[in-house]
From TrEMBL, chains A, B:
Keywords linked to the UniProt accession: Glycosidase, Hydrolase, Nucleotide metabolism
Any one Gene Ontology molecular-function term assigned to this protein's record: 5-hydroxymethyl-dUMP N-hydrolase activity
Tree of life domain: Bacteria
Reactions it catalyzes: a purine 2'-deoxyribonucleoside 5'-phosphate + H2O = a purine nucleobase + 2-deoxy-D-ribose 5-phosphate; 5-hydroxymethyl-dUMP + H2O = 5-hydroxymethyluracil + 2-deoxy-D-ribose 5-phosphate; a pyrimidine 2'-deoxyribonucleoside 5'-phosphate + H2O = a pyrimidine nucleobase + 2-deoxy-D-ribose 5-phosphate
Binding residues for substrate: Y19, E83, S107, A108, M109
Family label: Belongs to the 2'-deoxynucleoside 5'-phosphate N-hydrolase 1 family.
Quaternary state and interactors: Monomer and homodimer.
BP GO terms, sorted: deoxyribonucleoside monophosphate catabolic process; nucleoside metabolic process; purine nucleotide metabolic process
Matching InterPro entries: 2'-dNMP_N-hydrolase, DNPH1, Nucleoside_deoxyribTrfase
Protein name, per record: Putative 2'-deoxynucleoside 5'-phosphate N-hydrolase 1
Enzyme nomenclature, EC number: 3.2.2.-
């Protein structure tokens, strides 16, 4: 199973450590194409490629080749929104994770999208079970 | 011509006045479906509908029926990213406007997308000419 993990880069790296935890856990279920999103050395300058077109086209190719998209949507990010939008329009399965108790206000375009599965949580440990259930059920239905 | 204007709502309303200026100008070229995005009384609570699914489905219907999307992408917004992503994947023409000289760092998914037309500017007055050119050339090619 190829998993596209989406998290904020230029929108802000305050959740990079959490992304890394989620990515390490996702790797027990399949290949995570976007492992660099959890890299603590990647800053909000977002220089994870030689230029923006390279980054966009590489990420889009990964998105197209993925079986499932998992997006952490707490930190507000234009790029994560874009990836979720393209994936939904492609008909790909999308799971969004939103952490409650922050000042972040989840977009109605995510919270109100019936094509997106949405998990509300407070800390990483709460994600293990629902992530496992989602990815197992998804794998079984393939 | 039906124009879908996208701007930040729950991501933050600091640019609401600017959105209103852009919308008023866009109205000289066609119908702006999302005029409420510039409404100064709309706060970042984003309660521009009875619930999130209503807001999402209404906005998506407008997006689908629009001829062109104009998105102000300076204020970081998950919803604007989502709308641009869906529109690009639908094959719709998308024009993004990014204001330089703020602390905002434009996403590589917007800046590096060759299917998006991107205008950098500093203040509203600079937008008149390029917006007119874009919308006229687009209308002429229909």
């Amino acid at each position: 199973m190829k998993i596209y993990f989406a998290g904020s880069i230029r929108g802000g790296r305050q959740d990079a450590g959490l992304y890394e935890q989620i990515i390490q856990y996702l790797k027990t279920f399949g290949e995570v194409l976007t492992e660099h999103v959890g890299d603590p050395s990647l800053t909000s300058a977002g220089d994870d490629g030689p230029n923006d077109q390279f980054i966009h086209d590489r990420d889009l190719e990964w998105l197209q080749s993925s079986d499932v998209i998992v997006a952490e949507v707490t930190a507000v990010s234009m790029g994560v929104g874009y990836e979720v939008g393209r994936a939904v329009e492609m008909g790909k399965p999308v799971l969004c994770l939103f952490r409650e108790g922050t000042s972040s206000n989840l977009s109605a375009m995510i919270a109100g999208c019936s094509d997106v599965e949405l998990i509300y949580y407070s800390e990483f440990e709460e994600l293990r079970k629902p992530l496992q259930q989602y990815l197992f059920s998804f794998n079984a239905s393939k």
